[in-house]
């Protein structure tokens, strides 16, 4: 047999396709619009405050309204995903949160007190509708991507939060300045309504996708993707029992590894929600910029956050391919990035605007680099309750959506400046590092039987 003959079988081996990247692209686009909907209120916040005559504390509560309902929606949203599948539940979520965003554009037609109440209510409804979004992202990535590609995939969809600011902050700043703050809500919400129709044409479970070829399916299965997450199971296959949600919630919360990941997400999201709510107001009120300038300037740190987010996932997967353990490959970017994000405190000691933006950009880059929590959840959650675990993880993150705007509102109201607010944000980054280094030990996938049969790691 010649060398050519020996090489022939290998040459005929089909290469895996790239359908999974079209799924990731859709997740990225949807998450970009998701975060644009969340941040509409921050860009319009100063104009709303001036028109309605509300205090910083009241504005902080309006900012936090999303977080209250978003938190409540996490566990039910995760259950809905596990029960009915990611494709249908997520589609309805996109449509509803977009419709509620559009409705916020009409609150200016009412009297001051009614307008504030309606704005608060509609922000609650947006949060409620967005509940399944990130647990859905995590489930879809776990179903479509092998373990060694999952860090990059999760980082890409997570980095959409920064890309949303890069793309939409200048646009929203222009809309507020030239057309009025109401149009920020109607236009951004309208984009989401259209996107919900596209979703059903793009997203499928791996085994149901009309364009997925067998070589790519084999590739993702061999790499550890949980492709049957949304498939109907055989009668004898072990699943999470109906009505077992509360029991598994308790088991997840008493597992040391999972609890550390959840707590870490709370502190990481404190940084996120400072940038999503008070950062544009900080630029206008503390640094004297116009709303249009703030919209443009806010995009610069966000661009660095986007770069850091993509780099964090790529670095983590690269370390994994080089032979490092999953624990080391995930923790190195997380800890390094979060330590960099503490540079936000330096803004209290510089006056030049370019230095302030530089420090914010470094902080946002670090936050992006370290925001690998969704990759860790996809790595660790039992497949039978992946949505439930993702919902619980996002519940902790949602607490920050409530506490961060309110705490910073009270700090500004009592001190008249943002100095202590920036210290609070920097300290949260340090606590996230502590969570991953002290509470989370090894990172490994749990089997549902681990939660059934093993004693509590925290109790132990």
TrEMBL record:
InterPro entries attached to this UniProt entry: MFS (IPR011701), MFS_dom (IPR020846), MFS_Na/Anion_cotransporter (IPR050382), MFS_trans_sf (IPR036259), Sugar_P_transporter (IPR000849)
Transmembrane segments: 21-37, 57-77, 89-107, 113-134, 155-177, 183-204, 257-276, 296-316, 328-346, 352-378, 390-412, 418-439
Domain Major facilitator superfamily (MFS) profile, first and last residues per copy: 23-444
Membrane topology category: Multi-pass membrane protein
CDD domains: MFS_ExuT_GudP_like
Record's subcellular location: Cell membrane
Main location: membrane
GO cellular component, one term: plasma membrane
GO molecular function, a single term: transmembrane transporter activity
Keywords of the record: Cell membrane, Membrane, Transmembrane, Transmembrane helix, Transport
Keyword Cytoplasm: no
Recorded family membership: Belongs to the major facilitator superfamily. Phthalate permease family.
NCBIfam families registered for this protein in UniProt: 2A0114 (TIGR00893)
Name under which the protein is recorded: MFS transporter, ACS family, glucarate transporter
């Amino acid at each position: 047999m010649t060398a050519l003959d020996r090489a022939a079988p290998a040459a005929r081996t089909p290469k895996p396709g790239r359908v999974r990247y079209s799924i990731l692209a859709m997740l990225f686009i949807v998450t970009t619009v998701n975060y644009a909907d969340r941040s509409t209120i921050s860009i319009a916040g100063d104009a709303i405050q001036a028109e309605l005559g509300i205090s910083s504390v009241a504005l902080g509560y309006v900012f936090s309204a999303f977080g209250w309902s978003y938190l409540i929606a996490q566990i039910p949203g995760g259950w809905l995903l596990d029960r009915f599948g990611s494709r249908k539940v997520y589609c309805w979520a996109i449509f509803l949160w977009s419709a509620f965003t559009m409705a916020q554009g009409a609150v200016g037609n009412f009297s001051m007190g009614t307008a504030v109440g309606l704005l608060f209510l509609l922000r609650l409804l947006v949060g409620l509708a967005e509940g399944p979004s990130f647990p859905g992202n995590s489930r879809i990535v776990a179903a479509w991507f092998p373990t060694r590609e999952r860090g990059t995939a999760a980082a890409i969809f997570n980095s959409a939060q920064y890309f949303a600011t890069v793309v939409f902050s200048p646009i929203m700043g222009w809309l507020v300045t030239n057309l009025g703050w109401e149009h920020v809500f109607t236009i951004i919400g309208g984009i989401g309504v259209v996107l919900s129709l596209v979703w059903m044409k793009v997203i499928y479970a791996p085994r149901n996708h009309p364009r997925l070829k067998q070589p790519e399916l084999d590739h993702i299965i061999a790499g550890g993707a949980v492709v049957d997450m949304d498939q109907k199971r055989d009668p004898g296959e072990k699943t999470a029992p109906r009505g077992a949600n509360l029991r598994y919630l308790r088991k997840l919360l008493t597992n040391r590894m999972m609890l550390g990941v959840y707590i870490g997400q709370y502190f990481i999201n404190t940084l996120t929600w400072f940038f999503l709510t008070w950062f544009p107001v900080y630029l206008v009120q503390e640094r004297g910029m116009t709303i249009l300038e703030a919209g443009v300037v806010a995009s610069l740190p966000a661009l660095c956050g986007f770069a850091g987010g993509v780099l964090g996932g790529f670095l983590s997967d690269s370390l994994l391919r080089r032979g490092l353990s999953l624990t080391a490959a995930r923790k190195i970017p997380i800890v390094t990035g979060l330590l960099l994000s503490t540079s936000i405190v330096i803004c209290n000691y510089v006056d030049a605007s370019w230095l302030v933006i530089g420090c914010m950009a470094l902080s946002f880059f670090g936050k992006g680099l370290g925001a690998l929590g969704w990759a860790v959840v996809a790595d660790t959650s039992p497949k039978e309750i992946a949505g439930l675990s993702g919902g619980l993880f996002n519940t902790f993150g949602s607490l920050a959506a409530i506490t961060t705007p309110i705490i910073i509102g009270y700090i500004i109201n009592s001190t008249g400046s943002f100095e202590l607010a920036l210290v609070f944000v920097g300290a949260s980054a340090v606590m996230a590092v502590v969570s991953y280094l002290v509470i989370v030990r090894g990172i490994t996938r749990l089997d549902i039987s681990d939660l059934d049969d093993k004693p509590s790691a925290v109790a132990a």
